[in-house]
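Case study: NAD(P)-dependent dehydrogenase (Short-subunit alcohol dehydrogenase family).
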Amino acid sequence: MDLELTGKRVLVTGASKGLGLGIVRAFLGEGAEVVAVARRGTAELDATGATFVAADLARADGPRRMVDAVLAGDGRLDVLVNNAGGGELPDDAFGDTFDGDDDVWSEVVAFNLLSVVRVTRAALPALTASRGAVVNIGSNSARVPGAAPLPYAAAKAALAMVSRGLAERLAASGVRVNTVSPAGVRSYTHEGPDGYTARLAAHLGMDHATLLEALPRQGGMLTGRLAEPDEIARAVLLLASPTLPSAIGQNWSIDAGAVKTT
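Here is what the predicted structure looks like once written out:
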């Protein structure tokens, strides 16, 4: 199946590892030209051959500076994938009712919501010129009461609304906006020795491996395992593809049945 992505210029944020790296590889496999953005590069990202641009999107001026750098040498942009997200929780946030104080909430919302708004705003003229596509990476935590960390879940819920609102406002210009919302995905966040899951396990007095094995089923994932980044990347490819022009304002759950709705 030809997704008609050959030669398309694609910008992927949060691209150095995990899901972002999987998305980069998927677009390259379809013949796209990929610009990969992250705070720091990795050997794995270097090996893909994607163009790397270093940027800190958590800074208020980071998104604009990054987009300016990406478009400076080549003004084309066909697809934007807003994958950057997550963030660090301080130790004292574990066990706190709100999962952090005002500073934590501000940082998490700025990174997971405002950075997406800022990147998309800066990239919009180029995307409008190409009648391109935006794919935002959400999370099933936006739909699950009790999901943690709470600031992250709240920011992703807000992102879903922003994505849907922009889809309505931009459709007439030919720019399609959609969201992919995974549940647990194999990544450093879960598997890394100092990632969120490892730190949560330490707070609970559990072995990291034990919690990691239990999380998918506890979270309602019917496969009983974390999803592979490649699975989520394939959904991103479809939503970015011009062969699916009627996919507008969608929020695809790739969550192994974790969200229990009809």
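For the exam, be able to explain this: Residues 85 and 112 are 5 Å apart (CA to CA).
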